[in-house]
Amino acid sequence: MSVDERDAWIALAAVPGVGSATFSRLLEHFGSAQATLDAFARLPAGRTDRELAGITASRPRAGLGRAVRRAADDRRATRLAVEALGGWILTPTDAAFPQRLHELEEPPLVLYGSGDPAALERSRAVAVVGTRRPTAIGRDLAARVASRLAEAGATVVSGLAVGVDGAAHRACLDAGLPTVAVIGSGLDQPGPAAHRSLARRIAGQGAVVGELAPGVRATQGTFPRRNRIISGLARATVVIEAPARSGALITARHALEQGRILLVAPGRPLDRRIAGNLALLRETPARPLVGLDEMLTDLG
């Protein structure tokens, strides 16, 4: 990919509302990201939405065509914004783009990151996930699982949320070992405000990564999409504590769909705080997490 095409790819992918389906149809129609932006740059502003609707055979969000046209006016803006934050960008054609993410049904169009991009491609990577409101037992278990995995040479992947995610990340950092945080926002506001210093530590020993451009805030809709990247970067996922409606269950089901190993901590029947764990053990091919030594054996 040429430098100009790469900048155009990044600019087009960063337009809010241009998802994988729209992006693919535009590239199929025009042949490249650069040609797409060139075409929209030539269009009168009033025709852009109509043109986009005709190409995608759908009814795009109002103003989306104009947003694509604006992206064509400054194709380096997103790349320069990421570089100003001290970050980096990977596209699917870059050699450093994680091979495991190519296996996803919908790979990210772009990855934005800070820290060491090599941390994303470690052969041993395990996701550790769970609720934002764990019990003291669950928080301790998350830390012990993450520590044992890291000591065994695995990179722990999680979502930088408060609760289980934070406990897992901190355990790796306290051991002086790398961890990867996948965020559901832009690099300029990684994770909850309470975890900004944690994000900096993670970038110093591993990597913080996401698929959203700087300036994009986390929403309820961005987290489920982030979860497919958490499970996708790992060869296995461990669920610590999850109630019936926990986002960790989305990560777990992504892991199963992606053909990854899924380990789930069992718990007391009728305890709502682990109802999601019990449902996974009852309804899916997940295996129970029965001990730290057994966990390493199950993960090979």
Work out the strand percent. Answer: 5-15%
Calculate Rg over CA atoms. Answer: 20 Å
Which regions have little confidence, pLDDT < 50, spanning 5+ residues? none
N to C succession of SSEs: HHHHHHEHEEHEHEHEHEHEHEH
**Topology, number of strands:** 9
Secondary structural class: alpha/beta
Principal-axis shape? elongated
Widest sheet: strand ordering: 1-2-6-5-4-3-7-8-9
Terminal-residue CA separation: 37 Å
Mean pLDDT: 95
Largest sheet: 9 strands, mixed
Task: Assign a percent range to the helix content.
Answer: 40-55%
The number of distinct helices, counting runs of at least 4 residues, comes to: 14
Question: How does this structure look, described?
Answer:
The structure is a single chain. With 300 residues, this protein is of the alpha/beta class. The protein contains 14 helices and nine strands. It has helices spanning 3-13, 20-30, 33-42, 48-56, 64-73, 77-84, 99-102, 136-151, 164-174, 196-205, 222-233, 247-257, 275-283, 292-298, and strands at 88-90, 111-115, 125-129, 155-158, 179-182, 207-210, 236-239, 261-264, 287-288. It has a nine-stranded mixed beta sheet, with helices on both faces. Helix 4 (48-56) crosses helix 5. The chain starts with a helix and ends with a helix. The mean pLDDT is 95.
